[in-house]
Amino acid sequence: MKTILIVEDEDAISRVLAAYIRKAGYDCRICRDGKQAAASFDADPPSLVVLDVLLPGMNGWEVLQHIRRKSACPVIMLTARGEVGDRIMGLNEGADDYMSKPFEPDEVVARIHAVLRRPTHSIVGSDQVTFGSFRIDFKSRSVFLNGANLSITPRDLSLLMFLAEHPNQIFSREQLIEKVWGIDYEGSDRAVDLAIKRLRKLLLHWPPEEGELRTLRGTGYQLYAAKTN
User: Fold this and answer.
1) Burial 28-50 (b: 16+ CB within 10 A, else e)
2) Is 50 part of a structural domain of the chain?
3) pTM over 0.70
4) Is 122 inside any structural domain?
5) Is the peptide bond preceding residue 102 cis, with omega within 30 degrees of 0?
6) In which domain of life is the source organism classified (predicted)?
7) Tens digits of per-residue pLDDT, 110-123?
8) What is the distance between the terminal CA atoms of the chain, rounded to a whole angstrom?
9) Which residues of the chain have pLDDT under 70?
10) pLDDT confidence of residue 213
C-alpha cells in the first residue's frame, strides 16, 4: 500500500485530509511541523508528500529542499498563498503540483492520483540509451552523467525520458503536456519551461559536443543528440 505523508500544522485540515486519503485506499501519516516532517521522511520515505508552506520549525520550502537533496519523491505543495510567484517558486524548487487553500479534500485526492499515475514510457528495442557521457536506464528509471547518478523528480524524469526516447525530434509545450503530464493535467504550460530549466541545470556538465536540451523559439523543445552510443 502506498503511503502519503501529510505535513500540515492545522489539526482540522490534517485530520480531514487524512480521512479522505485513507478512504481512497492509501496509508497515511501526519506531521505537524517541518523538523518532524524531515525526520519522518528520512526514517521511512513515503510514496508522496502533501506539504504545507507555512510551518513551525522548518518552513515548507526548507522541507522541500531537504527532500530534494536525497529523493525524487513526489511533493504536492499546499498553502494559503495563491500568488503566481509562489506557485512558480514551488514548481521551480521541484514540487510536482501546487494547491491553494481553501480547497476541497477530494480535489487533493484527485491530484494525488494524478501525480502517482503520471506515465512512464515503454522503450522499444533497448532498456537504456547513451549520449556520450550521459546515460538513461529506462528500466530502473535512473539517469547518469559522467558515471554519477542524478536525482531527478518523477515528473522531470518522465519528461527527460520522453525526450530521450525521441532524440532530435521537436515537441511543443502542448504535446509534452499531453505525452508526459497526461491529458487530465490542469496546470499551466509554464510547468514545461520550469522543468526544462531544472533539467538543464542538472545537465550543466554534459558536453555540448555530445548533446543538449534545446529550446526552439516559437516551436518547442528537443533533446539534441550529437553523439549516441
Assistant:
1) bebbbbbebbbebbeeeebbbbb
2) yes
3) no
4) no
5) yes
6) Bacteria
7) 989 888 876 544 43
8) 39
9) 81-93, 118-126, 183-189, 227-229
10) 94
**How far apart, in whole angstroms, are the C-alpha atoms of residue 46 and residue 49?**
7
Residue 121, in any domain of the structure: no
Going by their DSSP bridges, the two strands 128-131 and 134-137 should be labelled as: antiparallel
What DSSP element (H or E) covers 191? helix 190-202
What confidence tens digit (pLDDT) does each residue in 133-149 have? 999 988 778 899 998 99
The dihedral region occupied by 20, where left means phi > 0, alpha psi between -120 and 50, and beta the remainder, is alpha
Q: How many domains does the chain have?
A: 2
Domain range enclosing 103: 3-116
The CATH number that applies at residue 10 is 3.40.50.2300
CATH of the domain at 192: 1.10.10.10
